Amino acid sequence: MKRLLVTIAILPFFIFLSPLFSFSNQNGAGDFKISTQNLTVLISRNGEIKEMWIGKDKINKPLKAFTVISGSHTEGDPIIKKLEKGGVELTRTLINDSLQASCILTERFLPQAGSIRWEIKISGKGKSWGSMINTIFRYPASKNTKFWTTWGGPQFDRAIVDSNLLQRLIPAPLVPDSKRDEWGQPVSAYEWSDPLIPMPFTNSTFYYGAPPVTYENPRIAYIPIQHNLICIPMCTMLEEKDNTGLTVALSPEDNIIDMDMKTKEDGSISFERLHNRISEESTVSFSLDLVAGQSDWRQSLQWISHRYPDYFNPEIPDALKFAGTGAYSNMDTSFDTEKMKNMAFSVNWQASFDFPYMGMFLPPINPNEKWKSYGGNETSAEEMNEYAGNMKKRGFYVFNYFNVTEFGTNFKFPQPHESGLSDSCLWKNCNDFLYERMPGSLLLVPDEMRLNRAYYSKTKNGGPYYTWGDGIVTDCGDPAYKDFLLAQAQRHISRIPNSFGICIDRMDWLRFFNEKANDGVSWFNGKPVRSLNTSWKQLLDSLGSLMHGANKAILVNDLVKRVDLMKHVDGFFDEYAYAGSPLNETAFLSLNKPAMCWTSGASDIRKTGVDDFFQKYLYLGVFPMCPFPGNDHSIKPDPEIDKWYIDYGPLMIAMKGRKWILEPHVISVKNNLAKANLFSIPKGFYIPVVYGKKGVANAMVTFKNVGGGKIKFCQVYSPGKKEPAIIEFTANRDNITVNVPIERGCGIVVVNK
Questions:
Q1: Domains in the chain with CATH codes
Q2: Over the stretch 553-571, which tens digit does the pLDDT of each residue have?
């Protein structure tokens, strides 16, 4: 009840006074109507939504929606139950003849504060089995209907899309489709496209976070550069003429193992949940909400981020203080502090390779006792803490390297002869340590899996997945390995107090399954398994409590971009954002969290130009890596590069502490002469006005004074200028208008309240 009251307070336009429930007998069918403010749905006796009415004007939509389990059919009549507070429950028995299996499907439709909630529960009968669980919507799309989701990029055919729209979608110079990279992939796949532009429906398949693993195409060493990814399981249909929008929002609390979202040009949408186990022992539960609002994608993001705050807010209250440009460097402190501050530098994800081998980040020895690091130097926990303290005094934050899916260096399989080390020294040999202490953590390659595209040549069927430094892939759901990781975290807390936390690498392995284990909920290729997604969630429940209890933050390299994996995560250090699509996904995941994104080298900046590079980051409220001394496989210092960062330094510094403002229709640019976004910052508002059209000297921007309060003055920051200039503003009630000077395509407005 307490959470419900909070939700009502922060979502005034979704409030309803009393849910309405009524039965209607249409054509003798005994259908049911359920209503909340601005939304009414008509439900059949078979659990199918047949029709809905949206908005204050009750605009009729002949939308159809229903849930099916692939290969199954209903047996007998449904059991219907009226619920308190205006809901209805329908229970059906489903039979899958080909699998000789059955289950009970129970669906509830419940009026909520600002939504109609659809709950789905599936209980197995007899033997365990699995099949695709598909919730299908058939939205009556017209040629004017727009579709939006949290995509890596809008889906469109640039050969036929309107040229003006194409320029809005891809403001940088277009790359010919014929141009290929060193791996033979089209370079256009890495183009950044504006993710905030709704588009017409297309025939598309979107993957939730990453494509699912299959034996035929496991995609080992997966990199999330695809535009057809979604990071939050939701979508919105927008009707500009009526100023209405309908959002379908799946719960991040659901145990979704894998999921595809498929759309069609006619307005069809299907959420295809994969690899959930149907059994007597564990009920499969899903829920989604239908939310009516205005014709603005912002409102859908606002609803879901307020409904599920644990997935969108950092657990460290002041985590946004970490925001700034980042580095992935060693423990060298011989750098110009003021120069780095002028580049908005904030975080070093420490890449000293100080561990003796992957996974053994802090050996179980005395804090002042040294070990030989993988990087070749001798170090100790005491020295690591001293470095973090030095950086802290300069005003910077150190995050130590952590990894929960990889272990060892030059790992041997099968198990070699024991080295003869005593129990207290067992940690010195990665083979002895894993085989003796946590053999169940070893993730083995199924015999059926095709490895013709395996990235690491040592990876063989029946053996481990090999990875960087000839380490191997591990399952953090193994109890002994989980305990080992938590012990490492506790050692980090006690021995490196000057560090601000850890940054976890290589989430890409979470796509896989451990076929030698059983998590009780996953089903892959006809058998019970353990999903590494499940392993991660269970580990993070414990790791989050441990780290946050010590006021330590958790950052992640989000190679699998799923919001349900980001509970307990305080921020992001995205290794592939320079590829375009990952930047958009990380931006949506970090609405209220700090996000730093990788810059692999000067080529990332030069390929579309300095201004294009920085302005897409400013537009989305995300910070790039900066040219820091000692950066590993990332951008290095250089006089020309340094100048670019110093030119944009004041614009990025002003962005620190930003949070997305998600009120509907909150900002606009007259005649679309530039792009603009709106963020809150501690002093007021941060408004990036970017990608100004060629020859544009000024852009008229109107925004809402969200939250009220007196505006003291407005400033504009321009590239290459150290100090901002004061600009005039006019107020018409809560609407504020500023005429923004555009230089090098942009002007960053800071509103001081």
A1: 1-154+193-307 (2.70.98.10), 163-191 (no CATH), 324-402+481-511+533-653 (3.20.20.80), 666-752 (2.60.40.1180)
A2: 999 999 999 999 999 999 9
